[in-house]
Amino acid sequence: MTSSASLPDVAQLLPDLYQLVEIESPSGHAEAISRVMDVVEGWARALGAEVQLLAGGTRSFLFGEQQRPALILTHADTVWPLGTLEGMPFRVEGDRVYGPGTYDMKAGIVSAIHALRAIHASGGWPAGGLRLLLTPDEEVGSSSSRVHIEAAAREARAVLVVEPPVADSHALKTGRKGVGSFVVTLHGIASHAGNKPEEGASAIAEAARLIPAIHALARPDAGTTVSVGLIQGGSAVNVIPATCTLTIDVRVSSLAEGERVTASMHALTSSDPRVRLELSGGLNRPPFERGPQTMALYARAQALAHTLGFSLTEEVVGGGSDGNFTAPLAPTLDGLGAPGDGAHAAHEHVRLDRWPYHVALLTALLREV
Ligand SMILES: [Zn+2]
């Protein structure tokens, strides 16, 4: 990399990141999450933002006159429970800053705020305005914020998601698999395993027969993965088990594959007529397909990165984000947050030597998108 006068100083980014990380904000903890949001709201108001409080706790910040604004997506929740900081403190070691929620995605929020500050300082908002959405529940499926995300995307000329780039890289995310979760509950008949086994109908035995059938729905060549990730069943070792539950993770690269797997799940049948199957769940996030609009945005980003002195790449990833909701509605580019590694892991960190380049990239992209 070469140095550039337009790069922000890490010394200015770090205090803001510290402030957000020191407020632990696990999904579901509304009070903690709103404290993070209060800090961001203070920063946004200092830039003249109009603030909207939306149902479920999402906040929307409007910058400039709104006419098909460019939308920045952020989330305030993390996967880390309260008290995590005690064993995993915010700390700088060499080129890395560690701590819960640094990489996913509090540094992304800080990137967005610094980009907005730089744009504000250089003479005003781009035509059409900018909008930042801050949601409380991305890590648990965005059930309360999805409606706001989709409504904002329908009005947006582009959506920039400041989830982190691909781990340990300068790779943006130009597609994401759709994510689904299914639960199959098997209802059999309990009986004494020693005296009257023939009167029972084993839910576990039927589940064991079903699992290979479920796994056979995967199509690796089409990007579809299916995994029974959890099994719960039985009541005691000497009882023919009356119930068993299978929880299944599904990832798909296309909507057609999502529909195929969903239909196949509904078509599962029991080989033992005395064991009844019950199915719940479905596709939670639709696939974010790597389309021409996203690739056009990526091409702009790549050119801008080149002028900033670094080379950008792109990747389609298996994990979902709120970009999955916006990609069918507006041109979406994801992974524009802070580079680093260790999302949802103890070594979660942001790379301080690379972060300023990505802030400068986001700033440039927001100026011209
Ligand atoms: Zn995230």
Commentary on this structure:
The protein is α+β, with helices and mostly antiparallel strands. The protein folds into 2 domains: 10-177 and 288-368, Aminopeptidase (3-Layer(aba) Sandwich), CATH 3.40.630.10; 178-285, 2-Layer Sandwich (Alpha-Beta Plaits). It contains 10 helices and 18 strands. The protein has helices at 10-21, 30-46, 84-87, 102-121, 146-154, 203-215, 255-266, 292-308, 323-326, 355-368; strands at 50-53, 59-63, 70-75, 91-93, 96-98, 130-135, 158-161, 171-176, 178-187, 191-192, 225-233, 239-240, 243-252, 276-285, 313-317, 332-333, 340-341, 349-351. It has a 6-stranded mixed sheet with strand order 1-2-6-3-7-16, with helices on both faces. Strand 4 and strand 5 (96-98) form a beta hairpin. It is elongated. Residues 1-5 have low confidence and may be disordered. Zinc ion is lined by residues 75, 104-105, 138, 163. Keywords: Hydrolase, Metal-binding. This is M20 family metallopeptidase. Pfam families: M20_dimer (PF07687), Peptidase_M20 (PF01546). Residues 174-268 form the Peptidase M20 dimerisation domain. It comes from Deinococcus oregonensis.
CATH topology of the largest domain: Aminopeptidase
pLDDT < 50 stretches: 1-5
Give the number of helices: 10
Tell me, what's the shape?
A: elongated
CATH class of the largest domain: Alpha Beta
- SSE order: HHEEEHEEHEHEEEEHEEEHEHEHEEEH
The structure class reads alpha+beta
Give the number of DSSP strands. 18
Q: Mind telling me the CATH superfamily name of the largest domain?
A: Zn peptidases
How many domains? 2
CATH architecture of the largest domain: 3-Layer(aba) Sandwich
